[in-house]
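Tutorial, part two.
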Amino acid sequence: MNTLKTFLFTITGFFSTASAKKNFIQVKDEANYSYFQSSVNDLLTYDIMSLTQYKKHLYQKFIDALTEQDKMQVISYYRINKDAKFENEYENLQQQMSIHDTQTSYSYLPNKSKKQWHVNFADQHLFGFYNTNLFAQDEIQCAEHPLLSHVRSAAQYLGNRVAPLTIENGPTPILIKDVHRLGFVNIMPTKENRNGIYGNNFAKASLDYIDRMSQQIINDKPLTNFIAMAALGYGSGTYQTYEIEFLFQTAKNSFSLAKELSGDMEVELHTGNWGCGAFGNNRQLIASIQLFAAHLSGIENIVYHTFDEQGKKGFEQGKKIYENFLRDIKINNCESPNFQLDQQFIMYLSKQNFQWGYSDGN
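Running the prediction step on this input gives:
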């Protein structure tokens, strides 16, 4: 967590208020994760943190789109155990995985033939800064899906096994299913505002401008599935093997559970430069890790949102590294149960001597 975010988390965490009456939510356990399920109506009984003026405006504008029917929707929350062990079959690598890259941001357009999952580039504290004037990927998703703030509050109240922490003595990614997208915020540059409102530029815009750049979704509200996983951050020099292992284990466990929760449906995974903004990770490394983790987990389709030319270049280089490793293991016919694909891939990446990048401040 960077210094600004640490400061903001410290001063804003005290504004959370206790609701007079919170509807009961039961926590359940499976071998690899703990979870709870709740209707929107029940989640709304869990108060959220105090919001800045801009965020309060967006919250009220978008939350008003909820209908009584919407409030009956059940949202599911899953927190993966730090010692989770998902079985990944070598046979998954024999299947073709469709890979598409784009410089666009997430559109959340529904696809009835595929179960879509969208990666949230999480902080250790799940959605920990939705109430501030920060406006990077994590905060944008919370603004457009305001029920995520109530999900966080419920998880905070229930605590322990479902605590809203994506790292706790190891990776503990969190998956959230069936959350209404209630609004849209245009963050791109315009003639009026050449910087747009992404990241720190959000706080520099006027409230009137933010209102005009936001639109409530009234009809056909899409239900979004999130994978909230936190990368390591603020490293320097050459990546250590344990750092690569942490990143890979985080992605593999996250994608494995997404595949499991999708049942028999084909999965379409949307991700991008995970941890490459404020956290300063290497784009090539992150791309190669996510591609192999998705393929090993049985994901059928991946849409990689590169954001810009720099991101596209990093993705393409990372894709080549992933493809070279696939080629090597197929040539060596590594189907033996003694051949540990995870460790072989981690060591393969470690030998590339990837260098940490730099934080972009967002």
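The chain is about 35% helix and 15% strand. In part three we will examine how such features are distributed along the chain.
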